[in-house]
TrEMBL record:
This protein's UniProt keywords: Chlorophyll biosynthesis, Chloroplast, NADP, Oxidoreductase, Photosynthesis, Plastid, Transit peptide
A molecular-function term among this protein's GO annotations: protochlorophyllide reductase activity
Location(s), subcellular: Plastid, Chloroplast
Stated role: Phototransformation of protochlorophyllide (Pchlide) to chlorophyllide (Chlide).
This protein's name: NADPH-protochlorophyllide oxidoreductase
Family assignment from sequence similarity: Belongs to the short-chain dehydrogenases/reductases (SDR) family. POR subfamily.
Organism of provenance: Trapa incisa
Pathway(s) of this molecule: Porphyrin-containing compound metabolism; chlorophyll biosynthesis
InterPro entries associated with the record: NAD(P)-bd_dom_sf, Prochl_reduct, SDR_fam
A Pfam family assignment: adh_short
Alphabetized CDD domains for the sequence: LPOR_like_SDR_c_like
Length: 402
């Protein structure tokens, strides 16, 4: 156990630092009793290549993918029995569907036969292999190239999608990167720190550009889902493991996160990969709420976020030290009991995509011990409307929408 704790405690983590020694304060000053109650409730491009080279590669891959997409995606409308209206097959775009949560969700939706899944992935071959090994039937998915670490690629994806002639019924912003051990920041094609650039800014542009497509859909329940996480929420035990998410006054975001004339971190501080990831998740959850405030009433689109549980085995931890990767799954399974399998997490996200009872907009979903969904509380920062508006306004400048 001592070994486990050593590998799981981040270098900046110290019980003394949190300074709470009262009997009831529990870890990090959060009452353990309270936490247990709520925790069940809460229960690469590291681009060193020149931009022009990346563009050429993307162009080439797009050509390849378009051909494949057209070949693999006959427009499917399910035949309705005479006199009975049957819901047509829905189309859902899932970013980062080549592994982990995205793949498990794609699989869960594809096997119902009710969904055509567009796997929006940066690595076409990896996505194709993943879909095949997950046993997804060819007619229920297609793959389109999307590299969220390049705004040109995001725009190209949106153009390709529009040209495909498919409706857009649900968009799932799922892809993410996490660089917990990086000493120095790496950057997207446009020069944004890579985790916030990919997880937040790439998705921000994608969802803004696809909003019209969603709005045009005649599907009975149109949804935009942005995957969040417990670790961005400082009202939880997990969210109190240092470094904690904190957007501060967003001076780094305002400056473009480029590490040159401004910090690579949203709050303007020194680079910290784990914090950058958690900050990006706060931006994801704030963006979902800002979408809800701006567009739900007029469009009827459901905007939602979620914490699917701790899927401790996914590729998200690929950059972590090997000892962490070995110990994290048993730690989550047996100690925190926050662990969830990829399959189970995929079913949860699939519910947020298609369950008729999860149509409420502006909600951050979580699942309890019995795997029942409930509306969870976000932290003060992750639910602050002023911060949401500021993230929105600064982000739209950075991605060229304002
Ligand atoms: P994975 O690493 O398994 O999946 C991440 C996916 O994102 C991969 O398909 C990856 O592609 C893709 N991706 C990364 N960078 C880009 C990019 N530039 N452009 C396009 N796609 C990209 O991790 P998870 O499945 O765990 O993560 C999925 C989501 O779940 C994330 O939003 C994460 O924050 C969230 N989450 C995860 C938790 C967990 O415990 N694992 C807990 C809470 C939330 P490739 O295969 O090519 O690398
Ligand atoms: Mg956590 C109920 C307690 C709980 C839960 C649900 C998580 C989820 N974590 C919990 C507790 C703890 N973690 C405790 C007490 C520690 C200190 C020993 C701890 C440590 C820890 C580390 C070092 N945890 C981590 C890391 C990571 O590198 C992961 C991370 O922050 O990624 C950003 C992580 C996570 N813990 C979680 C979840 C879901 C993650 C990762 C994924 C994410 O938020 O997307």
């Amino acid at each position: 156990m001592a070994l486990q704790a050593a590998a799981l405690v981040p270098s900046s983590f110290s019980f003394a630092k949190e300074g709470k020694s009262g009997k009831d304060s529990g870890l990090f000053g959060v009452s353990l009793a309270d936490q247990l109650k709520s925790d069940f409730s809460y229960s690469s491009l590291k681009s060193k290549k020149p931009f022009s080279l990346i563009q050429r590669e993307i162009g080439f891959r797009n050509g390849e993918i378009r051909a494949e997409t057209i070949a693999a995606t006959p427009s499917v409308t399910r035949a309705a029995p005479a006199g009975k209206k049957t819901l047509r097959q829905g189309t859902v775009v899932i970013t980062g569907a080549s592994s982990g949560l995205g793949l498990a969700t794609a699989k869960a939706l594809a096997e119902t036969g009710k969904w055509h899944v567009i796997m929006a992935c940066r690595d076409f071959l990896k996505a194709e292999r993943a879909a095949k090994s997950a046993g997804m039937a060819k007619e229920n998915y297609s793959i389109m190239h999307l590299d969220l670490a390049s705004l040109d690629s995001v725009r190209q994806f949106v153009d390709n999608f529009k040209r495909s002639g498919r409706p857009l019924d649900v968009l799932v912003c799922n892809a993410a990167v996490y660089f917990p051990t990086a000493k120095e920041p790496t950057y997207t094609a446009e020069g944004f720190e890579l985790s916030v650039g990919t997880n937040h800014l790439g998705h921000f542009l994608l969802s803004r550009l696809l909003l019209d497509e969603l709005n045009k859909s005649d599907y009975p329940s149109k949804r935009l889902i942005i995957v969040g996480s417990i670790t961005g929420n400082t009202n939880t035990l997990a969210g109190n493991v240092p470094p904690k998410a904190n957007l501060g006054d967003m001076r780094g975001l305002a400056g473009g996160l480029n590490g040159l004339n401004t910090s690579s971190m949203i709050d303007g501080g020194d680079f910290d990969g784990a914090k950058a990831y958690k900050d990006s998740k706060v931006c994801n959850m704030l963006t979902m709420q800002e979408f809800h405030r701006r567009y739900h009433e007029d469009t009827g689109i459901t905007f939602a976020s979620l914490y699917p549980g701790c899927i401790a085995t996914t590729g998200l931890f690929r950059e972590h030290i090997p000892l962490f990767r070995t110990l994290f799954p048993p730690f989550q399974k047996y100690i925190t009991k926050g662990y969830v399998s990829e399959d189970e997490a995929g079913k949860r996200l699939a519910q947020v995509v298609s369950d008729p009872s999860l149509t409420k907009s502006g909600v951050y979903w979580s699942w309890n011990k019995d795997s029942a969904s409930f509306e969870n509380q976000l932290s003060e920062e992750a639910s602050n409307p002023g911060k949401a508006r500021k993230v929105w306004e600064l982000s739209e400048k950075l991605v060229g929408l304002a």
